[in-house]
Amino acid sequence: NLYLEGNELSSLPDNLFSRLPHLLWLDLRNNQLICLPADIGQHRCLKTLLLEGNLITELPVELGNTITLRALSLRNCPISFPPQEVLQQGLAHILQFLRRTAMAQRPLSVHSTHTEICDAVTL
């Protein structure tokens, strides 16, 4: 567990989550954070993430890949992404929304692009 509440942190190291692979509980409440590192999506142990009282406006789409996450506190954060209607539905909906958004943002693979071009040519 890592308790960093009230330390006026404005950022986190980009490799925080990869350097702490067995972290279960992270308390970042009441800091000045504006974003989370993208490597959070590679974490395979984190169960609780407390972000309440920070300046975060957008959750990274990579957070949707944090498959062990069971609790997320976002109170008093000016979150605009995901939208409020998603946030109000709870953690499972938030993570699902982030995963869907990440999939929609992924570029087409070479194989799928090749297949689409071949399909267009045979039409």
UniProtKB/TrEMBL annotation:
It comes from the Eukaryota. InterPro entries: Leu-rich_rpt, Leu-rich_rpt_typical-subtyp, LRR_dom_sf, LRR_domain-containing. GO terms for cellular component: cytoplasm. Keywords: Leucine-rich repeat, Repeat. Signal peptide: none annotated. This is Uncharacterized protein. It comes from Hemibagrus guttatus.
